[in-house]
Amino acid sequence: MPHPIMFSDDDPMLVRLRTLALGLPETTEKIAHGRPTFRCGKMFAMYGGGEKGTKVRHDQALLFIPDPAEREALVQDDRFFVPAYVGAYGWLGIDLAADSDWDEIAELLDAGFRQIAPKRVINELDSRI
């Protein structure tokens, strides 16, 4: 039995996040567990999810793989949370809002993307800069 869909395609936070994520080379979107996920072969970001150890849902959140060098600093920031399921693998989440720093969100996506993307794809991304 498939998971129920837990997002709306016209959600403005998802639209904005989708634009950023799909702007990374060879990125695809796939619905998994009822939520949009972004992948370059492997998953590097997800839209929405629950908070580990609670029943709190963050339906308008970016779940991402942080840069290992920055993870501890991010955990100390109250804006970030450890998500259910993927948090055990080092992932973090941040709630999105209209006043979010979208440059920061783009950097978080980029960091997650670089954790999983093949070298040739990272080279392609770096050649765009």
From TrEMBL:
InterPro entries: YjbR-like_sf (IPR038056), YjbR/MT2646/Rv2570-like (IPR058532). This is Phosphoribosylglycinamide formyltransferase. It comes from Gordonia neofelifaecis NRRL B-59395.
